[in-house]
Amino acid sequence: MSSRLVTGSVLAAAVAAAVVGSVPTAAAAPSPRPDTARAAEQQDAPATGRALGLGADQRLTVRSVLTDADGTRHVRYDRTVDGLRVVGGDLVVDKDRAGTVRSERLAAGRSVAPASTTPTVAASAAEATARKGAGYRVDGASSELVVHAASGAPRLAWEVTTTGVRASQTPSRLRTWVDARTGAVIDSAETIVEGTGNTQYSGTVTLNTTGTAGAYKLRDTHGNYTTDLNGATTGTGTEFTDADDVWGTGSVSSRQTAAADAQWGAQETYDYYSSVLGRAGIWNNGTGARSRVHYGNAYVNAFWDGTQMTYGDGQGNVKPLTSIDVAGHEMSHGVTENTAGLNYRGESGGLNEATSDIFGTAVEFHAASAADPGDYLIGEKIDINGNGTPLRYMDKPSRDGRSADCWSKSVGRLDVHYSSGPLNHWFYLVSEGSGAKTVNGVAYNSPTCDGSTMAGVGHDVAEKVWYRTLSTKLVSSSNYASAREGAIASAKELYGRGSAQCLAVEKGFSAIAVKAGSQTCSS
Question: Residue 75 pLDDT more than 90?
């Protein structure tokens, strides 16, 4: 079913889907393959391991397969060594139509065996260490013996997962790696990614709902649906239903209003990935995701936890964080998780966060809402600074006082929301070019780090190049140097050597001070 909903002013114009050009047929974006492709590659995994020169103690498990129009297959693998899962052992291999390995990108070296596979630290001791360092009251903990190869030499480790709720009301699923021989903490990473958003409603829009008269559900045919937590911080919530298929009033006095915004965001994010990038949703399997609204009490945040979106109601429970850019940003963390799996720290963390900014922006442009036209500002409607300024600026990231405009050796030491600056800057430059410009009524003035000037080739080009880079070139430990290499290679594959699009991608990375590598648009 299709329904009309009111999420802002009832005078707002109906939102029309943006018409975005497709990738040229000669270099089509990767398309989903049936499970048989994965099964076939899994059967061939031992031969692939030998072709890569991996030791007999290693096993490859296929995570995903993407296939180009010319038959090239991009196969992403996880690894085990002596039966132990290797953290940071992921790799992506390009094969031609005949199955011959043409190139590979490994997050760790070919040898990932630790000095010993016998732990001298008990799992219970590792869990106690992780509990102590969690920073919140731990509700539960579990552990698995793994090999940690994400940084430095491979080490036998206990991967301890602790769960609980942080002081901010955001739930936690923290992974802590404890050396299984010494008891020292190697690293830790939070797997529930926090974000910020706004109550920028999208006017009167069309929702694809299911059900019949008197019993409509806020659920579309892909399985995107929305539930009401009613102030709870656990559980799945109660699915929204309605008798007349008109959802919300544009006021927070209706609990349906936040739900309608959240559902619209999920619907448009799915549609963007499907119609523009050829990806069948977050997991690339045609399924949607749940959105939970009315989380906690005056919770000023939204987050993606690996399976679903959750939105708080904001300050005073009157500003639900259910805008379309929040949905696009947070759900794109799910896409990153299911493609390159970029570590959420260091330079890879900056690339991860910028990826969500890029595709959150892309979804906003794609939705083409008259109430919220696409722009290159992040969180511009939140007014979190109290003076009308946005959280981040893509044309000149340093305008927020914290983000970096240019890559440098110190970028990886910044918080990931600020080390994202150079890639956000690259996206703007490739999209719109340098210098002063006004887009959809917003004025920008983007400098370059090398003093050059450049023309943009459109945000649709930058989006497609970056998605191909994310899905076929990057691995969990990728940094800005590998982003440059991957993006130029992707631009050549999509648009051809020497094309204006490839030259802009290459020039854009030079313009943010990422040094040239082996990839160029001419060779």
Answer: yes
**91, 107 in Cβ contact below 8 A?**
yes
Q: What is the 3-state secondary structure (H, E, C) of 357-380?
A: HHHHHHHHHHHCECCECCCCEECC
246-270 per-position pLDDT tens digit: 888 888 888 999 999 899 999 999 9
In-domain check, residue 377: no
H-helix or E-strand spanning residue 442:
strand 442-446
- Name the token pair of 455: 């023309």
**In the annotation, is 330 catalytic?**
yes
**N residues, the chain:** 523
* Annotated catalytic residue within 41, 127, 159, 330: 330
| Catalytic option among 222, 294, 329, 417 | 417
Q: Is residue 309 part of a domain?
A: no
For residue 266, give both structure tokens.
Answer: 């999920």
pLDDT value, residue 6? 37
| Tens-digit pLDDT profile for residues 217-233 | 898 888 999 999 999 99
Are 38 and 6 in contact by the 8 Å Cβ rule? The answer is: no
Same domain, 101 and 204: no
Q: Which amino acid is at 13?
A: A
> Does residue 517 form part of some domain?
no
**Is residue 6 located within the same domain as residue 81?**
no
Which range has the worst mean pLDDT, 53-57, 260-264, 416-420, 469-473? 260-264
Closest to 105 in 3D by CA, of 465, 489, 421, 466: 489
Same-domain pairing of 16 and 73: no
What pTM value is reported for the model? 0.83
How far is the C-alpha of 512 from the C-alpha of 403, rounded, in Å? 13
Other beta carbons within 10 angstroms of residue 21's beta carbon come to 10
pLDDT given for residue 24 in this prediction? 35
Tell me the residue range of the domain where 239 lies: 2-25+198-303+327-338
List the end-to-end C-alpha distance of the chain, in Å, as a whole number.
Answer: 51
Cα 184–Cα 190–Cα 193 angle in degrees, nearest 5: 165
Residue type, 332: S
Identify whether 79 is part of a domain. yes
Same-domain check for residues 221 and 298: yes
**pLDDT digits 0-9 by tens, 15-73:** 222 222 223 333 444 444 557 888 999 999 999 999 999 999 999 999 999 999 899 99
The residue among 106, 123, 148 that closes a domain is 106
Q: What is the token pair recorded at 445?
A: 């003035």
